[in-house]
Write a structure and sequence with these properties.
There is one protein chain. This protein is α/β, with parallel strands linked by helices. The protein has a single domain, classed as Rossmann fold (3-Layer(aba) Sandwich). The protein has eleven helices and eight strands. It has an eight-stranded mixed sheet, with helices on both faces. It is globular, with a radius of gyration of 17 Å. It comes from Pseudomonas berkeleyensis.
Length: 277
Amino acid sequence: MIRLTAERTPAGTSYLATGQGHPVVLIHGVGLNKEMWGGQIVGLAPHFQVIAYDMLGHGDSPLPEPGTSLEGYAEQLHELIEHLGLPRVSVIGFSMGGLVARAFALHQPQRLDSLVILNSVFNRSAEQRAGVIERTRQAAEHGPDANAEAALSRWFSHEYQAANPAQIAAIRQTLAGNDPQGYLTTYELFATQDMYRVEDLGSIQAPTLVATGELDPGSTPEMARQLASHIPGAQVAILDEQRHMMPVESPRLVNQVLLHFLQQAQAFKNQSKGIVA
């Protein structure tokens, strides 16, 4: 078992880092924290340097200033890799983290080696948009755990919930423990920024993978395909029978997809530079 001690950047971002080699940064979803990536840290660390951090308003990182934009969340990632002295990184963003990863790709393209967007949102329908706006209103009124039971039902299969009650309870506790304002600031961005700079997505030149679960109701396969169609050369992976929290529910399956893509991207990079593996 890999046991890590969290560290902090000068700006206060809390992060974990382990492994050797090409750096891969993991960005969690809204209401969660860096601990969600346990399965990926174990699976990826034998091959890469793996860094997981807490977004603004989550875990042990600072709260966002009122009105912080998606650019502010991308700047947090930039400060982290500057602190670690990493000239270029691969970025894996899950759900809200996928929006942050997209913003980072647009604002810091020279720092991005490859991009993975997992179970993230794009071009919501009117019905989907109304649903997420209503959940934002409920969170503003009742706090971060206002939608916890409904969220867990969307995120996990019934079988996984029944077989892993302690883990589900811990995630429910994580949701409830979020700072209300930090959570709401982040959730409002999650609810409204699915089309963030859509006209500029064609400028992303890094190898890109967009993946989601076949049964993910909020980050649907159609969203993944549409998003990938805007990014030159982007690959799409739809994982059979998986729901939203597939990195937690099915880490081995997700890790297989991630390792294949990341190693393929690194091989292509080395080939383009004339480096023989």
